[in-house]
Amino acid sequence: MKKLLATLLAVVMMLGCVSVFASCGDDEELNFGKELLAVASQLDALNGLTKGDADIAIIDSVMAGYYMNTGDTYKDYQILEGVILAEEQYGIGAKKGNDALIGKINEAMIALAANGGLKAVSDTYGLTSEVLVKADTTNPQATAVDGSWNAIVTDGTLVIGYTLFAPIAYNDGDGDDAKLVGFDIDLAKAVVAYLNTTYGTNVAVEFQVIEWNQKEALLENGSIDLVWNGMTITDERVANMAMSVPYLANKQVAVVKKADAANYGANKEEFVEKVSDCVIIVEKGSAGEELVLPVE
To answer: Angle at CA 43, nearest 5°, toward 32 and 284?
Structure first.
């Protein structure tokens, strides 16, 4: 049923989508910059920067660090050192009220922190220093008794929504030989394996590509069970989702051409002052977009 719902929703989204590229121009006063471009993913934001669509890409430091140090695609670009636009934490979100499901996810991550499984995953992707879950982390949903976890066990599948976002989730290889890998992908598999072993269940994990700005709707209508994709914990999301313990630290950073880096200042305050004539590109529905848009 979940697969059918996801397929139907994808068709509706494709038919109704006019563009994945949105623009907020001079008619809307931004917190900084003269124009905001919102695209479908953070990778699209980086690629838009290289194509000249924008002057600055605001993305997660976890992703920026990976791409700035992998291959030659972004060799002419850099993270603005010292310009930390926000510090944040990632969480895993389920439909509001599905606390028992999140309780099991928390339990497994804490157990993996204790037995070395979490470190093995984080070491693979160079994120060990960013991991927040420890063996003594408290599980706030440990005693939740709603039926959300039992429903997953009965269904036999845990559907996780994600976008391509290295090193969190990305395709290793090309074409039919490409394999979905990444910190969140491997961690989710390890969590489900732990739960199956611990509780004698036979739950399979399924990864579903989503449009990031549709994640709340997809949770609500049951197309996916979890958003597990480097999602920033915010007060609004805590109020509208069942949220896991923070599991990974992140920052919002600015990526620019190396040749232009000296023009943007050495800290956040100088950066905000110096980008008044710049076009900013972000992922739609992301923490980066929220930084640029004024609070309604």
So the answer is: 50
DSSP the chain: -HHHHHHHHHHHHHHH---S-EEE-TTS--SSSSEEEEESSHHHHHHHHHTTS-SEEEEEHHHHHHHHTSSSTTTTEEEEEEEEEEEEEEEEEEETT-HHHHHHHHHHHHHHHHHTHHHHHHHHTT-GGGB---TT---TTTT--SSHHHHHHHHTEEEEEE--BTTTBEEESSGGG-EEE-HHHHHHHHHHHHHHHHHT--PEEEEEE--GGGHHHHHHTTS-SEEEEEEEP-HHHHHHEEE----EEEEEEEEEEGGGGGGG-SSHHHHHHHTTT-EEEEETTSHHHHHHSPP-
Q: Which of 69-78, 150-159, 181-190, 244-253 has the lowest mean pLDDT?
A: 69-78
CA distance 291 to 56: 13
- 49-76 pLDDT, tens digit each: 999 999 999 999 999 999 998 889 999 9
**What is the rounded distance in angstroms from the CA atom of residue 230 to the CA atom of residue 249?**
9
221 φ, ψ to 5°? -90, 0
Phi, psi (degrees; rounded to nearest 5) at 232: -70, 135
The two three-digit tokens of residue 106, written as one number: 């928390």
Q: Give the Cβ contact number of residue 6 at 10 Å.
A: 21
Are 125 and 170 within 8 A, CB to CB?
Answer: no
Kindly indicate the confidence band of residue 127, based on its pLDDT and cuts at 50, 70 and 90.
very high
Q: Which domains, ranges and CATH numbers included, belong to the chain?
A: 2-86+253-292 (no CATH), 88-250 (3.40.190)
